[in-house]
Write a sequence for this structure.
């Protein structure tokens, strides 16, 4: 009897000691398998983009001294994109497709299966660092879009891209490090752009990865890789895929990018900014141009016509509070040009109601 009890205790202790590492090993294998499945699911739809610019080259005839001009395609850069429809619609970053001379760019697309195409530029997003290209084929592989609003810090993610313009479909893995970040991103030409509501991740986003997908372990795209902070280690950023869905929808339905315009520059408030600036409210969109020399309210815009002025705080739009991931831009992009929206505004100690009729970015 005592022997039996002793053996029972020993077996229980043995099982207890081995349970934790066994469970940890199973979890690691499960995540590894999920990661591999997600990469295999998305990779066929990830494309490399090589950007060429047509530039004039003067040629002199030695015999006659006559000068002629010949245009040559010069490689200007490379990046990544991904197919979002079976008929060839591709999303990437605006800074990937930008060229120095307007309308002189051409875009060579390489698929993972070796096929090559030249793409047509559908349009560039006036609000975000996004652009759409189109190749002409059918039955192409394409990605499944996720819901970036459901992301939380700690979510495992994978970034896929054309690293350094050389290594197609390179993958890095990490987690979502933060949400709703605001950054100022610069390209290699020194052009800068303010981006709000971006996802921060420690999945390495290398040069050339711009425009590639950030995916979850279900193989759904949750972001568009856009920038990295070179002053830190493993600090990358992606545009939430939900912020790109308006662009995608308009391109599919109208064949071009359509964005509704309110016409203000603003800063999203937090308690620290509100305290420093002695503002009456700590949440909302503060109409302010920051360090920009441009006006905070665009001339002849819907905002100006509605009487919105510098210093106003827009804290509610059609009953939706302007805070956190519900930035002013993300809310207004749920509407279309011509829609009327109601704004609640804090102006000093007064609360005002304004009706604004949105127009279209040109």
């Amino acid at each position: 009897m005592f022997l039996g009890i002793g053996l029972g205790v020993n077996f229980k202790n043995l099982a207890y000691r081995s349970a934790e590492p066994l469970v940890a090993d199973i979890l690691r294998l499960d995540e590894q398998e999920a990661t591999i499945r997600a990469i295999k699911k998305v990779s066929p739809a990830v494309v490399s983009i090589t950007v060429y610019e047509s530039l004039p080259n003067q040629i002199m005839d030695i015999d006659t001294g006559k000068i002629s001009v010949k245009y040559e395609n010069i490689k200007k850069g490379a990046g990544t994109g991904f197919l979002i429809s079976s008929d060839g619609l591709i999303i990437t970053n605006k800074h990937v497709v930008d060229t120095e001379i307007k309308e002189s760019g051409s875009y060579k697309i390489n698929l993972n299966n070796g096929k090559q195409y030249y793409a047509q530029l559908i349009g560039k997003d006036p609000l975000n660092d996004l652009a759409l290209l189109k190749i002409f084929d059918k039955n192409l592989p394409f990605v499944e879009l996720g819901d970036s609003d459901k992301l939380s810090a700690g979510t495992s993610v994978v970034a896929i891209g054309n690293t350094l313009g050389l290594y197609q479909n390179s993958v890095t893995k990490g987690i979502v490090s933060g949400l709703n970040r605001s950054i100022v991103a610069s390209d290699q030409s020194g052009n800068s752009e303010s981006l709000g509501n971006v996802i921060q991740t420690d999945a390495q986003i290398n040069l050339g990865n711009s425009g590639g997908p950030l995916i979850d372990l279900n193989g759904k795209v949750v972001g568009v890789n856009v920038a990295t902070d070179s002053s830190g280690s493993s600090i990358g950023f992606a545009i939430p895929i939900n912020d790109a869905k308006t662009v995608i929808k308009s391109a599919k339905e109208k064949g071009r990018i359509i964005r509704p315009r309110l016409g203000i520059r603003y800063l999203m408030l937090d308690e620290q900014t509100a305290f420093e600036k002695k503002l009456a409210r700590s949440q909302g969109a503060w109409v302010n141009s920051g360090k920009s020399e441009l006006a905070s309210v665009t001339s002849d815009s819907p905002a100006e016509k509605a009487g919105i002025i510098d210093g106003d705080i827009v804290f509610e739009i059609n009953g939706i509070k302007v805070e956190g991931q519900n930035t002013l831009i993300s809310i207004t992009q749920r509407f279309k040009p011509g829609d009327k929206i109601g704004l609640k505004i804090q102006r000093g100690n007064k609360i005002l109601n304004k009706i604004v009729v949105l127009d279209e970015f040109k």
The longest helix spans residues 2-42. The radius of gyration is 25 Å.
